[in-house]
Amino acid sequence: MRAIVYSENGSSEVLRLEERPVPEPAAGEVRVRIAVSAVNPTDWKNRSGGGTGAGETGDRTPNQDGAGVVDAVGAGVTSVVPGDRVWLFLSAYQRPTGTAQEFTVVPAERVVKLPEGVSFDQGASMGVPAMTAHRALTVHEGGPARLSPGALEGRTVLVAGGAGAVGHAAIQLAHWAGATVVTTVSSAEKAASAASAGADIVVNYREENAAEVIRTAAPDGVDLVVEVSPSKNAELDAAVLANHGSIAVYANDGGDTMTLDVRAHFAINARYQFLLLYTVGAEALSTAAEDITAALADGALPVGTEAGLPLIRFALEDTAAAHDAVEQGVTGKVLIDVADLPAER
Ligand SMILES: NC(=O)c1ccc[n+]([C@@H]2O[C@H](COP(=O)([O-])OP(=O)(O)OC[C@H]3O[C@@H](n4cnc5c(N)ncnc54)[C@H](OP(=O)(O)O)[C@@H]3O)[C@@H](O)[C@H]2O)c1
């Protein structure tokens, strides 16, 4: 089979295309024939030696996310059968089995069935972004631990960076769950994407006084912030947060440290909740997978330009260029076409 492999950390030049034997699933594992692999920032960060890539040795295939068809199952696996269309998450976490190859083997818990009519493109776009968004939306004091239609009814959610991949998923899931969704973006083009994703109020943080616009739209404040850039947005978040509001931080874009006005936060019983998908735990992952599946079946998580998330496609042999595009901050979802499998895209 064709596989993208790297043996040492570094720039995207370390990625090479190789012929490899098709791997066999051990007990509890599933072999998936990959149709579409997806690239997230974590993939290039790990490849370059940051994040979970630090200290890893041996040949590895990149990319956590993907979608395809179950091809074989190991002993004891009953959750899926060969022929099932599926999406994958954390494929390359603590194992060298990412999705940038024709077949990959992952533990059965990381393989989720695609609802009927949901495309491989959608499936490959779930993993890291949607699961991160799900966790961020379910850590609010007094808020729901699960998402479903109506679960966030009456709540206002602020999504920082609504044109990003995680931001896009957060808008869609919050909208599906009935929240009023406010989001910040840096350009008119990104504003159009965030509105297409389902945001009710879109604020250009470069051109508008974001705190003023958000306070006017939500006079009682926002209940939950899904935050990509805490160092840049701490002051804004404090200015718009409701009493007992929570700020869910999933990234350090824009800086590794932040300064908080202590009084402003305790005066409103604010809560900061940090999250990392790799270490969030099995229960959070499995509940996220279940709720995302329900949202997919409801048609609530479309991708593509009309849905606010342009798809940027690469061939498997161009995986290095796909990594570079994500590293350079391209707007949209970077997908890699691995095989043209006989199912709707
Ligand atoms: N903790 C976790 O488990 C976890 C999971 C997924 C992703 N992440 C991390 O989250 C980050 C984003 O991932 P992604 O896939 O969504 O990347 P992405 O598609 O590149 O989106 C990043 C977004 O952040 C926005 N942004 C940056 N600074 C901002 C600010 N000050 N205010 C508002 N928006 C701002 C950018 O928009 P503008 O350029 O318009 O500002 C961009 O739309 C990456 O660092 C990734 O590694 C962490």
List key phrases describing it.
Rossmann fold, globular, Quinone Oxidoreductase, Chain A, domain 1, six-stranded parallel β-sheet, 15 strands, 2 domains, 27% helix, alpha/beta, seven-stranded mixed β-sheet, binds NADP nicotinamide-adenine-dinucleotide phosphate, 345 residues
Task: Give the helices and strands, then pairings.
Layout lengths: L1 E4 L10 E4 L9 E11 L1 H7 L17 E9 L11 E4 L14 E5 L3 E3 L6 H5 L2 H10 L19 E5 L4 H12 L3 E6 L2 H10 L3 E4 L5 H8 L4 E6 L2 H11 E9 L12 H5 L4 E4 L7 H16 L13 E5 L3 H9 L5 E5 L8
Parallel strand pairs: 8-9, 8-11, 9-10, 11-12, 12-13, 14-15
Antiparallel strand pairs: 1-2, 3-4, 3-6, 3-15, 4-5, 5-7
The structure holds NADP nicotinamide-adenine-dinucleotide phosphate (NAP).
Q: What is the mean pLDDT?
A: 96
CATH H level, superfamily name of the largest domain:
Medium-chain alcohol dehydrogenases, catalytic domain
Could you tell me the number of beta strands?
15
Q: Which architecture name of the largest domain does CATH use?
A: Alpha-Beta Complex
Low-confidence stretches: none
Q: Helix-strand pattern, N to C?
A: EEEHEEEEHHEHEHEHEHEHEHEHE
Fraction of residues in β-strands: 15-25%
Largest sheet: 7 strands, mixed
Q: What is the fold named in CATH at topology level of the largest domain? A: Quinone Oxidoreductase, Chain A, domain 1
SS class: alpha/beta
> Tally the helices: what do you get?
10
Number of domains: 2
Cofactors and ligands present?
NADP nicotinamide-adenine-dinucleotide phosphate
CATH class of the largest domain: Alpha Beta
